[in-house]
Recover the amino acids of this structure.
């Protein structure tokens, strides 16, 4: 069974740029959630996708957007990057229940 | 406002010295409480789900318990490989939109 994978591992961008992060869900999982984890903090919920539709959103501005594809993989897009967007971005997948299984994360640095 | 608070922020243990981590929560309609382990620079690793007060779960040297206001993660006779940050999270829906605490960083020295 393949776990959750994310790409890229690390990314460096400058303020104002746009970024796309990718996630492949665990085999058999149909729901994907994205979290942002600042250094020394717990992850914060960004949004969740189920069957290609957004299924709930946390307290993040519209410049954070996402997609889910028919194979349940997902993208997180962030426009107009700000310095405070520097964080570890985590993708988690689940199947018909609340237990989330996380990928290794993408470390985004905004300069 | 829903809140999840973990204590202590950091814990330093000698190998074999048992201890407990606390997760207190104030949410309306708890649907599940989760414990994760996170190593530096990596994603959280799922440990336990607890659904109702009185429930307990065990895995190797770890035991999680749940009351109506808090959860404890007991570490019995820890080893250096138990060093990690332990995260507690709650959800109030069946989809698992998780609200996390800030975590407890545990260091176990030989």
């Amino acid at each position: 069974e393949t776990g959750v994978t994310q790409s890229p591992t690390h990314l460096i961008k400058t303020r104002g740029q746009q970024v796309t992060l990718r996630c492949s869900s665990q085999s058999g999982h149909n729901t994907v959630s994205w979290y942002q984890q600042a250094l020394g903090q717990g992850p914060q919920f960004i949004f969740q996708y189920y069957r290609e539709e957004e299924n709930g959103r946390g307290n993040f501005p519209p410049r954070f957007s996402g997609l889910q594809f028919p194979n349940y993989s997902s993208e997180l897009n962030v426009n107009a990057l700000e310095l405070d967007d520097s964080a570890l971005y985590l993708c988690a997948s689940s199947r018909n229940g609340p237990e989330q299984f996380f990928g290794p994360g993408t470390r985004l640095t905004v300069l | 406002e829903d809140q999840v608070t973990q204590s202590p922020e950091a814990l330093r243990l000698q190998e074999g010295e048992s201890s407990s981590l606390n997760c207190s929560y104030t949410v309306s309609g708890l649907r599940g409480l989760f414990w994760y382990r996170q190593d530096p620079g990596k994603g959280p690793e799922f440990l336990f789900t607890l659904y109702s007060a009185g429930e307990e779960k065990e895995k190797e040297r770890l035991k999680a318990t749940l009351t109506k206001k808090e959860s404890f993660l007991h570490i019995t006779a820890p080893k250096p490989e138990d060093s990690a940050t332990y995260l507690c999270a709650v959800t109030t829906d069946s989809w698992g939109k998780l609200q996390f605490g800030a975590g407890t960083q545990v260091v176990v020295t030989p």
Q: What stands out?
A: Chain A has no helices and eleven strands.
